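Cross-check.
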Amino acid sequence: MMAAIPQHIAIIMDGNGRWAKKNGLPRKAGHKKGAEVFQTISRYCEKIGVKALTVYAFSTENWSRSADEVNALMELFHQYLVDAFKQEGETSRVRFIGRKDRLSDKLVKLMTEIEQQSSEYPGMILNIAVDYGGRDEIVEIAKSLAVDYAEGRIGPEDFNEASFDERTFTAGCPPVDFILRPSGEERLSNFLLWQAAYSELIYMDVLWPDFTPAHLDQAIEEFNRRNRRFGGRS
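Predicted model, tokenized:
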């Protein structure tokens, strides 16, 4: 029996390409399998009572991959959204965080429809980070504060942590309890840099397409073993 269910989990879904190579498959097959695992894990999170789940689907740096892989990813992402969220029985409130100006009009339209359709659902908040970068998010927050200051809506005293928090892409969610990265890599890769200030970091040596609810249970058990002092004494 788990001691406590985290309120907000963030996951860097890493290792699709390596999984495909390991299994003698094209990279697209790894991404497809990874999308299936994402659906399984997101539903499991909601089932066990997680209040918010934020997943890293496509970073601002991923545009540097080959055009063929990027196009395949976008096509897969579009089809996945149709299959996973345009059906009965879904209860998660879906939010897409990150830039939208570099995505196709067709994809943005579908994302907007899903956000509107799910906005009143009673379940977990599901943030899907697409064309997202943590530094980019912080820059956008700074810009919005600067605009409000220039137009007289806020003063210098309003430049504080609380005003940053309420403008983050994950605003309205509980603080991130832990950031999980499977695949054996141990870095944040520009993910939730502001939100990660006191998040626990959990790394697991399993490629994302092989990730199961049992692995998530292990991560939650590890989280519950941590002594979270938030800068205070032990």
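The CA atoms of residues 15 and 144 lie 35 Å apart. The mean pLDDT is 92. Passed to J.P. for a second look.
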